[in-house]
Amino acid sequence: MNFDFFLKVNQFRVSFGQYASAEDFIDVINYMLTPMILIFFAGISASKQYLFTPIQCWSIFETGSSHRMEYIENLCWIENMYYWPLDANLPKDNHQQREDKKMYYYQWVPFVLALQAVCFYLPRICWLFLSDRFGTSIMDIIRFSMSAATVDQDKRQRMVQYLAAHIEKLLYHVQPYRRGRWNQLKTRCAQIFPCFVLTKRTGFVLVGSYLLIKLLYVKNSVLQLVIMQEFLGMNGTMWGLQLLSNMISRRDWERTGIFPRVARCSVKVDYVGKNNEFVMQCVLPNNMLNEKMYLFLWFWTWSIMALTVFSFFSWAISSTMRSSRRTFIKKYLKIMTSIHIEEKALAKKFVNNFLRYDGIFILKMICYNAGDLITAEIVREVWHRFKSKKLELPEADLPLMPPERPPRVTKQRRHNNASASSDARASAAATVARADSAPGDDSASYV
């Protein structure tokens, strides 16, 4: 079969983006795209705050020089402002009401956005740490596979053989060789509940760790929604829908009090021996930007959380169901080779006992990053290597099977064996003595 056309398509697909990762596209959205968006928003907010005028205040009362007004603006910026409707009278001795309506988020927006970006990247760091427990770098295997997908036929064949040998050695290394009650119990528990036994010998450490990282991404999205709600002082988790409804129905901030453009600030100033309190009106131009940013982030966070939940269940079902794993391998084996009827049992053992969960996971990540063609070639090469060793070696000597343990020797059996050995040695000595004294012996005639 001529694969030139598919090779060109695959080369375009791989060369279009050379970034290799042992994650799917939903994970890339979580740890790469979302932090980039948050850092971008944080940069815009910080530039508007520290390069331009973030606040400008005015009072009907005389405050003196411009330096005093600058001092009052800085004080209002530090001490937090509160929203009070412009058409409502501000009663006296309303300190508690002012505290309840204070806005604590205005000057901290860029820092909290940067913190949110760090939180989105933390699961990625955990995944890099957990994936290294498998014994090799999965990223290196994927990068090598991507390189093999873009070279000529001869070089690609050599690289495929190297990859197949490396994967074979890696999977043989994590086979459950040890036999003991504890190890047999762990193997049995891993077969029934693989998600609760995350060790290399169970063949589920990569898949289990990856599913845990998926759950971390989901929990992080929930945490982000809570952070935004508490930081902005919103009532209820569905404040984004309320904000969007207000924008569509043209209910502005003067009626809702959400992201107000004008706030008030009470400043006490000593003037001519008296403690005077000025109520300032301050313009908050950054809230126009904050409103749009957080509305987008609210919908974005809900969207990626839903996609991550879907991705988690998709990976959990496809990675744990035997039929799904067999279908995946069968699809690529049919592309490059054919399985005879007498090899079906061997193919099942190839999927269930040799590749297992982690081997299928590595091949899926190669397929996701390098394409179907190179994955089919690697699967074919690994299958041929497995089949040749399976047919050459006797069943008891296969690396897949645990070695036979020698029979346990008790003290009584050891004593009996020692007695039998001494009797055998005495019998052999007597036989030699009789042979020496027998007539016709060469040594006797020599004498």
Automatic annotation (TrEMBL):
It is a multi-pass membrane protein. Its main location: membrane. Residues 418-438 have a biased composition (Low complexity). This is Innexin. The keyword Membrane applies. Residues 397-447 are annotated as: Disordered. Keywords: Cell membrane, Ion channel, Ion transport, Membrane, Transmembrane, Transmembrane helix, Transport. It comes from Macrostomum lignano. Pfam families: Innexin. GO terms for cellular component: gap junction; plasma membrane. The chain crosses the membrane at residues 28-46, 108-130, 295-317. InterPro entries: Innexin. Structural component of the gap junctions. One of its GO terms (biological process) is monoatomic ion transmembrane transport. The gene is inx.
